[in-house]
Write a structure and sequence with these properties.
By secondary structure, this protein is an alpha/beta fold. It is built from 12 helices and 12 strands. One of its GO terms (biological process) is DNA-templated transcription.
């Protein structure tokens, strides 16, 4: 049975014309004549049985159907192009994995370790793109994703195979200078913090809030049995990485997963203000399409789970 797929040339010409809303600019991009672009688009319209462009005195504009079709096919054309380039560059060996990753986890946990994967599998190239929301693998060009969410969100992700990575437990962190500004008596002769702060003491510090989790400080104080009347107030930032920078510059105390702060805690730029963690409702997961049987994904999953285990042991020491 013949697939209902139009010619690749007509799709490429349509995509260029739709991007520029001009046959002239499409012709210049593809090194074709304007009449060649027009013929290819006409062939595509005949194949589909509908109009993709309306002709105006200023050129062309997409019809509703044309706009919908353009949005759907451009990622697939890009995927074909990238797959072709990957095959050529790897000469049929190895390949490329396109991963969607939550931003702070990517920059603070995964990227500092990715050189180890490259050393073991130099034939596999990893492309990272930040993504904070679930998506359908059938509609996206990612091969897999590292996503943070609740168990309910993960369970409702259709057609996905899931590997648990780690919990997202958070701890209060800030600069030591901020604590010593409010509590100079807590500075030991060594210059370090001589004890953990109580909930009442932390309540006197400026709080740094996460935009996407407005009640996180309220929950932490409730775990500590303290009712903070202003637990929802304070400067707000979207990402853990932004909160970490603000905390490092003495702007307040923030709730951030300790596992994402290895460098700051090691250097002393941040200190853990209280040892009491808030067990997060979210966790990190590696997710990929259930029908995806890629050997590249299998190798990455095995390496990733090993790295998680190593980091857990290091973290507990």
């Amino acid at each position: 049975m013949r697939r209902m797929i139009p010619s690749l040339q007509s799709l490429i010409c349509f995509e260029a014309a739709a991007k520029h809303l001009s046959y002239t600019f499409a012709a210049q991009e593809l090194h074709l004549t304007q009449s060649a672009i027009s013929r290819q688009v006409q062939q595509l319209e005949d194949f589909l049985g509908l109009h993709l462009f309306n002709r105006t005195r200023h050129g062309v504009e997409l019809t509703q159907a044309g706009e919908h079709y353009y949005k759907n096919i451009k990622s697939h054309l890009l995927g074909i192009e990238q797959s072709t380039l990957d095959l050529i560059s790897h000469k049929g060996l190895g390949g490329t994995l396109k991963l969607g990753v939550v931003p702070t986890f990517a920059t603070r946990w995964l990227l500092p370790r990715l050189y180890k994967f490259n050393a073991v599998y130099p034939e596999i190239t990893i492309h990272l793109e930040t993504s904070t929301k679930p998506f359908l693998f059938s509609e996206h060009i990612f091969d897999a994703a590292i996503y943070t969410g609740t168990p309910a969100q993960i369970e409702n992700w259709p057609g996905a195979k899931i590997h648990f990575l780690m919990n997202e437990d958070v701890v209060p962190v800030c600069s030591a200078d901020l604590i010593f500004k409010y509590f100079p008596e807590l500075k030991a002769t060594s210059g370090h913090l001589n004890r953990s702060l109580t909930a009442e003491e932390i309540a006197t510090l400026p709080l740094l809030q996460q935009t996407t989790r407005p009640y996180i400080w309220k929950e932490w104080f409730e775990v500590n049995g303290y009712e903070h009347p202003f637990a929802l107030e304070g400067q707000r930032h979207e990402l853990f990485s932004m909160l970490a920078v603000a905390a490092t510059h003495h702007m307040g105390v923030a709730l951030i997963p300790q596992k994402l702060l290895e460098n700051e805690l090691r250097s002393g730029d941040l200190v853990i203000a209280s040892d009491i963690k808030l067990k997060g409702s979210r966790a990190y997961y590696f997710v990929y399409a259930e029908q995806q049987q890629s050997p590249l994904i299998a190798k990455f999953v095995e390496w990733l789970l090993d790295e998680v285990e190593i980091s857990q042991h290091t973290f507990m020491k």
